[in-house]
Every structure is written in structure tokens, then in C-alpha cells.
What does this fold into?
Amino acid sequence: MRHHYWEWPIPTYLFLGGLGGGIFCLAAILSFFVYPDVPMMGEVLAWPGFLGICALGFGCIMLVVDLGQPMVFYRAFVKSTSVLAWGARFLTVCAIFGVLWFASYVPWDWFAPIAGFLVPFRGFCLAIAGLSGTCIMLYTGIFLSTLKAHAFWATPALPVLFTVSALSTACAAIALSIGWWPAPFTLESVIVAELSKEILHTVDIILVVVEIVVLLVMVLSFLGAGNKTANKAAHRWVHGSYAPLFWGGMIFGGLLLPEILYVFGGHSAASTLVAPVLVLLGGLLLRFMVVLSDDRAPLPGEDRYYTRIADKDDKFVKAWTYGENIF
Amino acid sequence: MTRYVMVIDQRRCIGCHSCTVACRTWNDLPLDIVYNPVLTEGVKGTWPNVHRSWLPTLCMHCEKPACVPCCPTGASHQDEDGVVWIDYDKCMACLACVNACPYGMRDQSKLQPRLHRFVRKCTFCRDHRAADPGAEPYCVATCHQKARIFGDLDDPNSEVSKLIGSVETVRLLEDLGTGPQIYYIPELGGKA
It folds into this structure.
């Protein structure tokens, strides 16, 4: 039985949250472990960091928009044991420290006192943003996999898939935007940006392969050995109504084609521009298809019942106003 | 300790939907919300050997409810007597609990104003019983076939204890491990 309680803002958020978290995770890894002694690294990564902040901010807006009571979104921070509450905290921490880190690189004259004040804390801010970004990547998949009412989500493969996809899309986004403003247009910054792109392309080649393997293992294992509900969803993916999107959109367009372009495209626009964009679109499509596969084991007669009661668009239903019952 | 449960005798249910109507009326539910749908798979068998069974449902008030720990605001509660309910003043309608419920017994009304929606569910008429401790949930009180029986499982003299101890009962989707507290007495030869 499919209800689609969550509509388009939620898969959009899952994509943007993972993307933003992944960007800060990779920015921290590149800064602290790959090029720790290159002073230009921060400037070169600042614009991807800004895109990460935008992704997190827009993702938060998607989350709030989807609430039944958007004005009281702050209640999400209350309960300590809920995965969702922890996700809200990671999002907030990552966005705040990401903004502080980016602000320290803003070169405007009028902003210089604030940027100057933040410069000593750059490393600390990026470390916190990177750590919380990693947690965001992990929690999105973990949260869905804890909802065991939905058999297609309740698998340990889902957090792995979402995390790998988040890292992959973050690689693509950084590769697309690294080295832009506020990095100065100097030989050093161009070299650092190009070297980073090479690393990111190589990492993304590996991540896309891992993603293909995890995705196929998850879907095909449900197809072969999942319970009835998960099996039904997997059938829809492999040779049902989702098959064109799964095989054509996600596997070929979002994973195989960018992989081929990465490997054989050299430094052409196909490799540096088209492939990352396809990876990003594939990541978005993955979130949509997973969230829309919210099949729940139906109770006996449940499908029949809900197809026979009044539709929510029926005229007399819409004419009813809340609070007008006579009792 | 008190442990409220409900026994539903499918041998007695005739599918009149009185429980649904009573619940909707007394709880003043929006038109697109049903707390206790009465389900049926229709007529089964081949003429003249045909039969039809009914499955009255409601929130299972699970022993380990999946809908409570996932709530980020603490709006989803479980009382010590096992009743699962929602504090509407804390709910922000993120629908995490709605997605967590394996029985589909939570929902928000889309007929309510867009900025004032909250998730609703059966509470075993918690407010009604708080005002009148001897009262039963409306769906139980209205069932003229006595197909719904409500009571304290920890009281050995209660009707529900005696029924669960003496008659074979089944629970829905028990393999999920949530410990549903609605016990069904299947119709003769049938399953819940």
C-alpha cells in the first residue's frame, strides 16, 4: 500500500542536505589531509563551501515548507533521542560553522573587520562543519532505514547508498565550482584548483562504481529475496512503472554515462561539465525514487477500503469546513 | 499496573461501521480522517459456500510503538497504561510518526488550515475516560454486537484478560516486533 505522505520537498531536502554535508566533509578532507600545507586551499574551496551553505539553507526551507505547522519548526530540536532531531541539530551546526568559515574568506573591504576576526578560527569552523556534514550524510539514510513500516527503506544498504551518493554528488559539485570567487585568479590558485579537480574526478569514479554496486545489490536482493512488500517495490523499479527511470535515468544517465565520460573524456567539457551535472541529477532522482517507494504492507482489505471512501477532492468533502460539526 | 488493550471478536462483527461513525462524531473528526476503519476483503468462496469477514481496526497502541521514538518534538507519547497519544501543542506535523506506523493509523487532515495541521490518531478516547474513569471508548460503547471489548490486561478479572487467556487470538503484523495491543478473535475458520 502506497500513501506518499511525504511529497516533493522531502526528497529534495534529502538530496540537498546530503550534498551540502558532503561538500563540507570533502572540503575538510581536502584542507586537512590532502593539501594541509597549501595556503590557497581555503580560498579555492570557499565558493564550493558557499554552494554547500546554499544547499543546506534551501534544504532547510524544503523541510520547513513540508511541515503541517511551519511556524513552529523550532520544536524539531527538542527531543534528544529522535534521529530527526539529531539531524536538525547537525544541519544547524553545519550551516552556522560553514557560514563562519566562508565569511572569513569574503574579500570585501567593508567586511574586512569581521573576516579578519574569523581568520584564526577558520580551521576550527571547517572541522566542525566537516564533522557535522558527515553526520548529515549518514543520518538521512539512517533515518529512512529506521522506518521499518516501509520494507523498501528498512535495509542497512540504504544509509550506505545515501552516504556514497552524497559524497559522489559533493565531488561533482566541488569539481564544478572549485577555484571561483573569492579565490584570486593567480597561477597558484589555478594549479591548486586543477589538482583538486583531478583528485575529485578520480574519487568520483570510484564512488560511482560503489554506488552502482550498492544500488544493484539493494534492489536486486529485494527482487530476489525481499518480503512481499519490498519485492513489489523492487519489481516496480526493475521492470515496472519505474523501470525507465531506474535503468535509463539513474543507472545509465546518472551513473554509467558520467562514469564513461569521467574515464574517457579527458579534460573535455563532457568530463568536466556534463559528467558532474549528470551525477547531480542522478543523485536527485535517486532520492525521489526511494522516497516515493514508500510501500507499506497492507492490512487485509485496506486497499479496497481506501479506494471506496470519498476522494479528498470530492465536492462535498471540500465544502466541509473544520469546526462546523454540530456535535 | 494497568495495561489497556482491546479484544475484537471478528465472529461478532457484522460490518455495520457504527464504531467508525461514533468515533468520527464524538471526536469531531475532519471528513478525511478515520481512526477506526472497518475493513473487508469482500465475499470469499464459491456459491453456495461463501463467507465474508470484517476487520475493525484502530491504533494498535503497541507495546513498543514505532511512532513514539521517531518523533523529534516529543509530541508522541505513551502513557504508563500503554495508551499512545499525541500532544497537539507540541506536534509540528513532520509526518515522521505517520511514516513510522506500520498500520497506517496516523494521518493529518488536509482540510484543516495549511499552517495549523497536526497529526491525529486514536487515543482509546483518553480525554473521555479522564473525565469519566468508568467510561469505555466510544467505539466500544456503541458496538451493539459487543465485538469490541476494552479493558485492563493486567487485571485477571477483566473480560479482556479472560478472553485472551481462554480463546485463541491473533495480532496484526506481529513479526514487526512492535507488540500490538489489539487482539483479534478470528471468525470461525478465518484469520484476522
Observations:
- The mean pLDDT of chain B is 92.
- The first strand of chain B starts at residue 4 and ends at 9.
- The domain at 4-185 of chain B is CATH 3.30.70.20 (Alpha-Beta Plaits).
